[in-house]
Amino acid sequence: xxxxxxxxxxxxxxxxxxxxxxxxxxxxxxxxxxxxxxxxxxxxxxxxxxxxxxxxxxxxxxxxxxxxxxxxxxxxxxxxxxxxxxxxxxxxxxxxxxxxxxxxxxxxxxxxxxxxxxxxxxxxxxxxxxxxxxxxxxxxxxxxxxxxxxxxxxxxxxxxxxxxxxxxxxxxxxxxxxxxxxxxxxxxxxxxxxxxxxxxxxxxxxxxxxxxxxxxxxxxxxxxxxxxxxxxxxxxxxxxxxx
Length: 243
Prior knowledge:
This protein has helices at residues 4-7, 9-17, 26-45, 51-151, 154-172, 213-223; strands spanning 180-182, 187-189. The chain has a two-stranded antiparallel ribbon with strand order 1-2. Helix 2 (9-17) packs across helix 3 and helix 4 runs antiparallel to helix 5 (154-172). The longest helix has 101 residues, at 51-151. Helix content is 67%, strand content 2%.
């Protein structure tokens, strides 16, 4: 499939104008399209093999850069009222959400202690029930062993051995308790949100330490080749700045 915008200048101009949204100034888009078409072919065939060609290319780049700055200034001018309005809206809703969060915090302070109390009661009841069941199972297993020894019954010996295996499995099995409470009109669930804090940075394994690249790049810009940090290489990438 051929690309019509690559061969048809008008199609290329139309393609640029498509980016208009109704908010962006149509005039600035038309100006950009005109500038784009004016310099596109020149840039594609330009060679920089002499000081004169370097000067011409630099002058052309400077013109394009100035127009790019003009576009950026226009963008800021058109978006500033929208951004100001967004800041006002965000501030209002942030305040409202803050009120709601303060109410949630207060009600949670009343709910959580009792929920924790209910959960502890469930866990204790589950532990007592498990202990009772294990006690019954052990008593049954001991009775089977006693009967097997008295009767010398292989079947009873096998039953006693099977019972012993099941008892060991039960002892190793974790108690799972549903940590939720049904209220009269609503259901609340106590969720444990686990977090971590550093108490001794010297003991933290290396894989959990994060390099502050923003700080290191700032130091590289300031100190350049003089920056010396073990394990860090200072380098540069060339770019062009138009006057």
